[in-house]
């Protein structure tokens, strides 16, 4: 069965974000195909997608390589997120469904419970899920896609410190959902703008500070276990 290119793209992107491939390192089709246990065709398609997203660049005489963003490019991403997330919340207030609200309220409830217990690992994943769901609530595939790309790139470029007061952070999440539920786009925009401004202050550039990357695995010769691609 042919594994779809978008699944291979997700796997390569996740490894780039996790630091498996260093900035500037080569990404050869043959070794990537071997690592992920696929043919070179979906790898080639995935690299084209990742180049369009800005994770990969094609260099003369070198081929596909992991991109090397500048500090200014990284800073621009935070500014873009600061502008687009409030817009997304305002759109969500007008276009959300009851299903979206149910998920958002459930995440807020879990987030507030975990925040009181001080479980930072759970809070990180719940926060990502919250913002993904809020983006999907906009009813705009284009805006949802752009916000997802921003989150991926910011996770790649920045280390994020835990909120000083996670309870307050999740209280803000709850206030955003309340505004979205009431259809109050302006309040949703304002609360999200404040929340985003506070959260972005906790971001620290990885490559400017020496990095906090996991140990690199350069072009492994062995296929990795990718159950999500096998179904």
UniProtKB/TrEMBL annotation:
SUPFAM superfamilies: GntR ligand-binding domain-like, Winged helix' DNA-binding domain
Species: Streptomyces coerulescens
Keywords in alphabetical order: DNA-binding, Transcription, Transcription regulation
Domain HTH gntR-type: 2-69
Protein name (database record): GntR family transcriptional regulator
InterPro entries xrefs: GntR_C (IPR011711), TF_FadR/GntR_C (IPR008920), Tscrpt_reg_HTH_GntR (IPR000524), WH-like_DNA-bd_sf (IPR036388), WH_DNA-bd_sf (IPR036390)
CDD domains: WHTH_GntR
Family annotation (Gene3D superfamilies): GntR ligand-binding domain-like, Winged helix-like DNA-binding domain superfamily/Winged helix DNA-binding domain
